[in-house]
Design a protein that fits this description.
The protein has 233 residues and is mainly alpha-helical. Helices cover 44% and strands 9% of the residues. The strands form three sheets. Strands 2-1-7 form a three-stranded antiparallel sheet, with no helix packed on it. Helix 1 packs antiparallel against helix 8 and helix 3 packs antiparallel against helix 4. The longest helix has 14 residues. It starts with a helix and ends with a helix.
Length: 233
């Protein structure tokens, strides 16, 4: 009989805590200087006082109806600040974004946001791309471009490029390394009398009977086994 199941179970039993592989590093993040016509320099994150000032210089936002572009606050009750009213300045702003784009150690989502901000930069040194051109160039969505701009204004430069923290803690895995090893050993063992193989339902009952876990659904067991054996191929 092959020793692969036993060897795999022994290897997994040495894992003391679950987790994902990741790489990390540091980067100097130099915040931009944001200026809005009629308001002046804007502090990031946005202060309540300046939020009111920005609302005062904002214009009613248009919306589309068929081929028409309409402005009706009764239909779309929101305002917008046009790109011609905004300037992003700072000697190190472009350099910081360029470093993120060209270094290969940053997550792809962070690089995408940096590219969006670079192309959307309306300052003298910026390229002033339209949102539609950014979407086409980077195969992204208008919603992503808008969220990136909004997060820059509301939360600041660091918040745009850093991963958003979970509001709730992640749920602990039912099968950690040791319990997963015991499950695999059980699934590779002889099935109960009268059964040709272990079914997920049988495993669901047996892991509780043996005290491996307090409870686990057949779906959880199926996902755990599928992940383990697919990683071997």
């Amino acid at each position: 009989m092959t020793t692969i199941p036993a060897d795999l179970a022994a290897l997994l039993s040495t894992v003391r805590r679950p987790g994902d592989f990741f790489a990390a590093g540091t980067a100097e993040l130099l915040a931009p200087l944001l200026e809005v016509e009629g308001v002046g320099p804007v502090a990031l994150p946005l202060l309540p006082t300046q939020a009111g000032q920005l609302a005062a210089v904002a214009k009613p936002a248009p919306y589309g109806r068929g081929a028409e572009t309409l402005v009706d606050p009764a239909v779309r009750h929101c305002r917008q600040i046009g790109p011609d009213q905004v300037r992003i300045r700072g000697r190190h702003w472009a350099r910081t974004l360029e470093a993120i784009v060209h270094k290969g150690t940053h997550p792809s989502a962070q690089v995408l946001k940096a590219r969006i901000l670079l192309k959307a930069d309306m300052s003298e040194a910026g390229e002033s791309w339209s949102d539609e051109r950014i979407v086409a160039a980077f195969d992204t969505s208008l919603a992503t471009v808008h969220r990136t701009r909004q997060r820059l204004v509301e939360k600041g430069f660091d918040a745009v490029l850093q991963r958003k923290q979970r509001e709730r803690p992640s749920i602990a895995r039912i099968f950690d390394g040791e319990k997963e090893a015991r499950l695999i050993t059980l699934a590779c063992s002889e099935p109960p009398p009268g059964h040709a193989k272990w079914s997920l339902r049988l495993l669901e009952e047996k892991v509780v009977e043996l005290g491996i876990v307090e409870r686990a659904s057949d779906n959880t067991i199926g996902r755990t086994l599928k992940k383990t054996f697919s990683n071997r191929t």
